Amino acid sequence: MDTNSLLATLQALFGGVNAWRLCEGLFMSFFISFVSIFFSIIFGSICGLCMLSRFFVSRALAKLYLEFVRIVPILALLYVFYFGLPQLLDMNLSNVFVGIVVFSIWGSAEIGDLVRGAFSSIDKHQRESALSLGLSPLKVQFFIILPQATKRLLPTSINLFTRIIKTTSLLLFIGVADVLLVARQIIEANQRFDLAPFIMYGLLLVLYFALCYPLSFLSKKLESKWS
Known about the structure:
Blueprint: H1 3-14, H2 18-51, H3 56-71, H4 74-89, H5 95-120, H6 124-132, H7 137-167, H8 179-189, H9 196-226
């Protein structure tokens, strides 16, 4: 392909409102990702503490929730919440709301398991030694257990956040105008250009890499520093 043809392809793909549509799609992907991560941290922490509870019922329910989320594909959850649940309840749910709910459900389960693992990995002798020195159980949790668990939890949690960001690409199947769906629409509108799919999807690879690599790098740094 000569230079003129390449320029014409780029003009068709990114000219007019296409570049702005891509930015809006990218913002939508990031918005759903970060809102889901926010709720995942909150409810995942609660789920993890339930897994560590002395009460059998709370432990059993939390573990059942984790196994259910891990077994059921995310795409199936998206379909159930977007196509099935509204008909069952006779109500309308926006695809963005469904995306946030489903990814929060998935993220909460995974964060819960990470919280359980981080707290369980702390040697019980540290708790017993702190109590023998006269610290209250609350101070032991806050000043002894929590700082160590946080150091072990952060690297793996950041890796999970990158997985959530990447997996939001499934949202196109319920019609969310994320960056992947917008890119596909632009490609379909410019099928006459042979390089359109390569250029557009190549751009998406660069965008996802630019967002996820810093998080992955930070995770490795933290893991190396605190190991």
